[in-house]
Amino acid sequence: MEKPVMKRLLFDFFSEKTTAMQRKLIEEWLKEPPNEELYYQYLDAWESENPQFFPDLDEAMKRYQVQLTGTVSRKAASEPSVNLQRLPSLSRGRWYSSLVAACVLIVACFLFRKELMYQTLKSANAHSSTYQLSDGTTVLLNANSTLLIPRFGFGSDSREVELEGEADFTVTHTKSNKRFIVNMGDHYRIEVLGTQFVAYSRSQEKRVFLSHGKVKLQLPQGKQIYMKPGNLFTSGSNDSFNITVPAKPQKYTAWKEQLFYFDNTMLSEVARQMKERFNVEVRIADTILAERRIGGIYRAEHPDDLFHILSELLPIEVIQNQDHVEIRNK
């Protein structure tokens, strides 16, 4: 099919104006790998011409708090007020009760909107957890990670989730070609059609390793990049980033098999990974020891497993304290 004709057809699809036969045609067209990238390009063009509305819940909450503290806007001041003194006492009591109930409901909806609108999927310390979403997508959560999914099902336009931590996604392609979106916080966002990738979203770094398919990353300041299989995206300081093809991709997927992959890795980095995986605070006695490097692939399902391995590799002592573990030279 010629590009101009396909572009018009996709624009109708994005606007929900296509027939069942046309949607089937698009689904067949998307089976060709080169067409996925063209699909994203047309989607970007359509979105730029048709900006979507997203309500600013934080701003709405601020306005409500202003009203709650007694500050009335000019518009509200100009509207006629209800004279409660003229109402019968029974009606006035009911009016007060209804008003209080409404206020409590509004405040609860704002303060607990995430709890109300999203279901939280979690993984415990030292254990990964597998979940299958309603669309068939499989998610493997690394230890100490959470995924928020819509409590009442995905929307008609996209399938959006929020990740804090690390997860492996095997995304299922839908007949309606709904985009699968992973929000990682700090204005990082992954858009996919049908693919497999590992996403890492913690305070110090954002990371995406793509195994199969293609994804589009939306970055801070409106930047967008496309990734191909084998690409590794890592965020840097001041909104900088790198796209590389790692020679040892297992480093970014070893956790799925409860492995630690060390490649000339400093002991301070080992301690950080133990904090993420086991939620154990590890303190290293001196800077020189913290900069010692180790290598190898090790299975560790419990903190003691890795401490034992470290004791075999390095001349160290492991001291268990009440709220942390200290590592020092022998």
Would you kindly provide a brief summary of this structure?
The chain is α+β, with helices and mostly antiparallel strands and 330 residues long.
Average pLDDT reading: 81
CATH-derived architecture of the largest domain: Sandwich
Cα(first) to Cα(last) distance is 71 Å
Q: Major sheet, described briefly?
A: 13 strands, mixed
Number of domains: 4
CATH topology of the largest domain: Jelly Rolls
Quaternary structure annotation: single chain
Please give the number of β-strands.
18
Order of helices and strands: HHHHHHHEEEEEEEEEEEEEEHEHEHEE
The DSSP helix count reads 10
β-sheet strand percentage: 25-35%
Low-confidence stretches: 71-87
What is the gyration radius calculated from CA atoms?
26 Å
Helices and strands: which structural class? alpha+beta
Gross morphology is: elongated
**Highest CATH level, the class of the largest domain:** Mainly Beta
